[in-house]
TrEMBL record:
This protein's UniProt keywords: Lyase, Pyridoxal phosphate
Record bears the keyword Lyase: yes
MF terms (GO), sorted A to Z: diaminopropionate ammonia-lyase activity
Name of the featured protein: Diaminopropionate ammonia-lyase
InterPro entries for the chain: DiNH2opropionate_NH3_lyase, TrpB-like_PALP, TrpB-like_PALP_sf
Pfam families: PALP
Annotated EC: 4.3.1.15
Enzyme class, broadest EC rank: lyase
Gene3D superfamilies linked to this entry: 3.40.50.1100
Cofactor: pyridoxal 5'-phosphate
Length: 400
């Protein structure tokens, strides 16, 4: 499925609130917090000229978030950042002064953090980030996981000291349960999706993701003309496209939002012209993108600067995992999890379709940016789908 954005808000400026969240000051704040992390390192940006040639485009770059902060996913930038911001804000209220990120490990702030509990629902990656952030500041975390989250992903969250609550049902039901229990017990919900009356914290989560754009623009030889962005509830796509729009203005790239056909709530929302929930379908292999209701904040951004919306199938995602693990020419091998290569799957589908290419002005001069949003966050599942372990992929083909 493929749909150009026909919303009346398309190409209109971001709201003042969203421009502030995703603008320069917000990105500066996210970078300051990131710099305070002990294991911070910029993630690699890979050029794939051989694959670009196969697809008939001028350049293809992939930002590899599988290397981010030891968590294997871009989500490491969002939940943990929001947790640390919220702890400092609470400390500021109680101490009666502005509290800087450099004070996170101070005794006064640690005492305050120890009395705070952060809760969220997750498909795996966001919960790991919230749990890690809480652990870093000495707070408690309670993570709600639905029936589709693998035991390996649950164990990865629990390693950060989180309390795990398993619920029956899907991701959206776990979101509602996390919000209900947190309200009863006075916990703070750190969600990557938003709903009426709950927008600021998901905005902070999105703000953390702007670091990806900052790093990519520093390394790209020229700004991209197109960016293909995977979506679950839409927060990542909105953060990336929003910050690119702020930084590049009229020269921003065309932003194409890519979802699994089995869980395309943003596509359905774009088609309807308003946020809607979709019926649950069969589980998708792209588990981190299996969401059935869009984030309201994300849609507000994407209705303005999302230029097209599309879906990819199960086999597309698995094919990309294998293609990146066994690259052409001198392209580097990249370990991409089930959801990590959905943006590239979208590009490959568009590149092979004359009508979609024309609609998006994708041609031999196009410069495309893709984000590998996760590495092998479930190594067992990765090996099953690719036929090699992540370690074998890295050993066989180191980047030049």
């Amino acid at each position: 499925m493929f749909l150009l954005n026909r919303h009346p808000d398309h190409r209109q400026p971001l709201t003042k609130e969203d421009a502030a969240t995703l603008g320069t000051a917000g990105a500066d704040a996210a970078e300051r917090f990131l710099a305070a992390r002990d294991n911070h390192a910029e993630t690699p940006l890979h050029a794939l000229p051989a694959l670009a040639g196969e697809l008939g485009i001028g350049a293809l770059h992939i930002k590899d978030e599988g290397k981010r902060l030891g968590l294997g996913s871009f989500k490491a930038l969002g939940g943990a950042y929001a947790v640390m911001q919220l702890v400092l804000e609470e400390a500021g209220k109680r101490l009666g002064r502005t509290v800087d990120v450099a004070e996170l490990q101070s005794p006064d702030v640690k005492v305050i953090a120890a009395g705070m509990t952060f809760a969220c629902a997750t498909d795996g990656n966001h919960g790991r980030s919230v749990a890690q952030g809480a652990g870093l500041v000495g707070a408690r975390s309670v993570i709600f996981v639905h029936s589709g989250v693998s035991n390996e992903r649950v164990a990865a969250i629990a390693r950060f000291g989180a309390e795990i609550v398993r619920i029956a049902g899907d991701y959206d039901q776990s979101v509602r349960e996390a919000a209900r229990v947190a309200a009863e017990r006075g916990w703070t919900v750190v969600s990557d999706t938003s709903w009426p009356g709950y927008e600021r914290i998901p905005g902070l989560v999105m703000q953390g993701y702007t670091v990806i754009v900052r790093e990519a623009l520093k390394r790209l030889p020229e700004p991209p003309t197109h960016v293909f962005l995977q979506a679950g509830v839409g927060g990542f796509a909105a953060a990336m496209a929003g910050h690119l729009a702020v930084m590049l203005g009229q020269g921003r790239p065309r932003a194409i939002v890519v979802e699994p056909a089995r869980a395309a709530c943003v596509y359905a929302t774009a088609k309807a012209g308003r946020p809607i929930a979709i019926a649950h379908s069969k589980p998708t292999v792209m588990a981190m993108l299996e969401c059935y209701e869009p984030s309201l904040v994300a849609w507000r951004v994407l209705s303005r600067i999302g230029d097209a919306f599309m879906t990819v199938d199960e086999e597309d995602a698995v094919s990309v995992m294998n293609r990146l693990a066994r690259p052409s020419g001198d392209d580097p091998a990249i370990v991409s999890g089930e959801s990590g290569g959905a943006g590239l799957a979208g590009l490959i589908r568009v590149a092979g379709d004359k009508k979609m290419r024309a609609a998006l002005h994708l041609d031999a001069g196009s410069r495309v940016l893709i984000v590998n949003s996760e590495g092998a966050t479930d190594p067992g599942r990765y090996a099953e789908l690719v036929g090699m372990t992540p370690e074998e992929v890295v050993r066989v083909r180191q980047p030049a």
